[in-house]
Amino acid sequence: MKKMNKIFLYASMLILTSGIAAVPTVAKADINYGLTSVGTAIVTTKDSAQLYNDSGQPLGRYLPAGSEWKTSLENTLDSGSYYGVGADEFLKSSDVDFESLDGQATYSEGQTSAANYDGIEVTSAAGAPLYDESGNPLGRSLPEGSDWKVDLQDNNAKGTFYRVATNEYVSAVDVRPYQNSPVYSESKVVTTPSGNPTRLYDEHGQLITDRALAANTSWYTDQFTDIGGIGFYRVATNEYVIASEVD
User: Fold this and answer.
1) Which of 23, 24, 99, 192 is the most buried (most CB within 10 A)?
2) pLDDT at 78
3) Which domain holds residue 216?
4) Residue 32's pLDDT band (boundaries 50, 70, 90)?
5) What is the DSSP pairing of strand 198-201 with strand 168-171?
């Protein structure tokens, strides 16, 4: 029998314990910076390209050099930017050339528009060191907790960087990009599918790693929001599920 929950927080989030070790949340040590829609696009592998899961872990499988794959999703981690090409299968942006089919600019490794984001928040307790466009440190840092507008995202061999001023960049390791997402009132019940637990995300689309929703359970939602072009339902205070992953 499905359990119906119509209040937030109380008994709402289940810790993963059955065969899966719970991963503790560490403040200011974010590993997932959010899933972002990139519309309809194609990525072409430069060489034989490793596949990764949504946490940036290698899957031990490769796609052949010069092969083309449809993508609509970008996943930004501390290890760089990735494009989804299958169910929990991602290619690193530095391993591919990207071509939008929605009339946007075509680009390969290097600078791209950061239009998906409204800004970045510095999450590193030590602050965010500034780098030049070649990834060389400038000897200055932005303070923890400060917010900055960005206009460019730079994916290169050293990782993912965001431009905050002329020839001044911060590393994705030290910040969290965010979007001022539209919010719509909602009043309905959503149900998780059978099989694996349904993952939870925060208000920035950032993966919550220490809990999830059990399969075949129902949850009340009061809010729908668009984060990076992806729809989310709120099921608890600052805890969301991807709309397409629930019924």
Assistant:
1) 192
2) 66
3) 4-26+181-245
4) very low
5) unpaired
Structure tokens at 235: 């099921």
User: Does 18 score more than 70 pLDDT?
Assistant: no
Q: Which H or E run contains 41?
A: strand 32-45
Q: What is the pLDDT of residues 199-240, one digit of tens each?
A: 998 877 778 888 999 999 999 999 998 876 788 999 998 899
Specify whether 68 is located in the same domain as 55.
yes
Domain count along the chain: 3
- 95 and 38 inside one domain: yes
The b-or-e profile of 121-143 (16+ CB within 10 A means b, else e) is bbbbeebbbbbebeeeeeeebbe
Claim to verify: residue 189 and residue 173 sit in the same structural domain: no
- Phi and psi dihedrals of 105, rounded to 5? -70, 145
Asked if residue 210 and residue 185 are part of one domain, the reply reads: yes
- Give the residue, 110 or 60, on which the prediction is more confident: 60
